[in-house]
Amino acid sequence: MSDHATTIASAVQQLNAGDVHGYVTTLYSPEAVFHGFPPAFPGDRDGITSFFQALRAGVPDATITAQDLVVAGDTVTVRFTLTGTHTGELLGVAGSGAAIDVEGLTVLRFVGDRCVERWNRLDDLTLLSQIGALPAPAGA
């Protein structure tokens, strides 16, 4: 495992344990820029902190699991799943008790030992369907 992959694994372990501050400060440079998160959250480190605090409030048992991790120089790509139980408000939707199981993909660019830029894609339609914000797709 590369140093970047080790840093990501350590940070995600902290996030899965509920330590948003540890996750953010372990993984991201103070100047990091974020792309692909909901517009309500600014694309800086404070915004990403707020995003993950909101996620943990809405899904207190949220667990992120890497399915694939590819390191290429200063860039790491991770295909992941987000699982948990929607018990609190998330994205304006009151807790439903629904299980969530959503796939995503993220690309992180490092300078030194910290991520300075992150691009993120989550299967938002599945997430919104699972928490009851959108009707489930036909045949689902």
Care to give the gist of this entry?
The protein is built from four helices and five strands. With 140 residues, the protein is an alpha+beta fold.
Question: Notable features of this structure?
Answer:
alpha+beta; Nuclear Transport Factor 2, Chain: A; five-stranded mixed β-sheet; 31% helix
CATH architectural designation:
Roll
Task: Please tally the β strands and state the result.
Answer: 5
- Summed over residues and divided by their number, the pLDDT gives a mean of 94
Low-confidence stretches: none
Kindly report the oligomeric state of this protein: single chain
CATH class: Alpha Beta
The secondary-structure element order is HHEHEEEEH
Strand order of the largest sheet: 1-5-4-3-2
Whole-number total of structural domains = 1
Q: Tell me the structural class.
A: alpha+beta
What is the CATH topology descriptor?
Nuclear Transport Factor 2, Chain: A
Helical percent range? 25-40%
Give Rg in angstroms. 15 Å
What about the largest sheet? 5 strands, mixed
State the separation between the terminal residues, measured CA to CA.
37 Å
